[in-house]
Design brief:
Elements: E1 11-15, H1 21-32, E2 36-42, H2 51-54, H3 59-62, E3 63-67, H4 73-80, E4 85-88, H5 101-123, E5 128-132, H6 158-163, H7 167-186, E6 190-195, E7 197-199, H8 209-217, E8 223-226, E9 228-233, H9 234-246, E10 252-256, E11 259-262, H10 263-273, E12 282-285, H11 295-299, H12 307-321
Parallel strand pairs: 1-2, 1-4, 2-3, 4-5, 5-6, 6-10, 7-9, 8-12
Antiparallel strand pairs: 9-11
Helix pairs in contact: 1-9, 4-5, 5-7
Length: about 325
């Protein structure tokens, strides 16, 4: 297969949920190289919360923001029309207590993914679809030892996710499985990337769910889960997405994880840099996350930056955005 993004001709790709944390950095990377025209799907192209995308270098010439709802097949197909590649980044992450998980998160995740894939296969010019999944689709396994390394062959247990009402993990697992099942049936080229907890500097104006984990460390009124967590920089995730899209040898799933850290050590490091914040005082001890291997992604050439750089850039970004004083 010729590299999906290779050659000298300008390529057009689609990024779903373009205004989100990971997707914004992916759009930045796609525009920065000067080789891609980008169709970015958003709920409302005129919304001020998407202004950061229009301010990116190259956006005026090579970025089109298109109104699309992932549950509306027609709008998805229109956004993907003419694209040689698609990055499906959009994902429902409700910031409220769910009353009907099937309607509020499971159906949107699975139906939205299937609408994207169907539009890709019917467009007949899409060479590769990169699906952004999560370690949440990997790590929920019964009786998995904390020292036993998880790799791309591990899938979260659907029944266990339902029993424990872990709806986000269930939605990511079902959506990713459906994507690969569809790929088998139709022959469309699907690759997935499963990041750990994504932190790093914000491009978008509002705080996203994964970044709020770090903010919680710095605010004394928040309950913090004390455990071993896995972190990855949003810029490194964007690089990974572009890498698996452009690499001819890429196939299947890729775990995207760089830094296991004890939450207690992260807080200690933050205190040494920013001693004046009112740090969390309410803690609950929970099971450590198991170790994960990113060797498959690294074998493609993926590299990641030091954790200290990611953490400091995160906090400085939160301060600049007004999330922290």
């Amino acid at each position: 297969m010729e590299a999906a993004g290779g050659g000298t001709t300008m390529k057009t790709v689609c990024v779903t949920g373009a205004g989100g944390f990971v997707a914004s950095w992916l759009v930045e990377r796609l525009l920065a190289g000067g080789r891609y025209m980008v169709h970015g799907t958003v709920r409302d192209p005129g919304d001020a919360k998407n202004a950061h995308l229009l301010g990116l270098d190259g956006a005026a010439e090579r970025l089109r923001l298109l109104k699309a709802d992932l549950l509306d097949y027609g709008s998805v197909a229109a956004a993907i029309a003419g694209c040689g590649g698609v990055f499906h980044v959009a994902c429902p992450v409700p910031d409220y207590a769910l009353t009907d998980p099937e309607v509020e998160i499971l159906a949107p995740a699975v139906t939205g993914t299937m609408n994207v894939l169907r539009a890709c296969s019917e467009a007949e010019v899409v060479k590769r679809v990169v699906v952004v999944s999560s370690l949440s689709a990997v790590m929920i396994k019964p009786e998995w030892g904390e020292c036993k390394v998880m790799d791309e062959g591990c899938w979260s247990d659907v029944d266990l996710c339902r029993t424990t009402e872990n709806w986000y993990c269930l939605s990511k697992t079902l959506a990713e499985r459906e994507a690969f099942d569809y790929a088998k049936r139709t022959g469309i080229d699907v690759v997935s990337v499963c990041p750990s907890l994504v932190i790093g500097p914000l491009l978008q104006p509002t705080l996203n769910a994964s970044s709020s984990v770090v903010v919680d460390f710095l605010k004394g009124d928040r309950l913090v889960k004390m455990k071993l967590r896995h972190f990855v920089d949003v810029r490194d995730v964007a690089d990974a997405l572009l890498l698996v899209y452009e690499s001819p040898a890429a196939s299947g799933r890729y775990i995207c994880n760089s830094h296991p850290r004890l939450v207690s050590d992260v807080i200690k490091l933050l205190k040494s840099w920013y001693p004046t914040y009112q740090y969390a005082t309410k803690f609950v001890q929970v099971s450590h996350e198991p170790p994960f291997s990113s060797k498959k992604l690294q074998a493609l050439g993926w590299k990641f930056r030091p954790f200290e750089e990611t953490l400091r850039d995160s906090v400085e970004s939160f301060k600049a955005a007004g999330v922290l004083d």
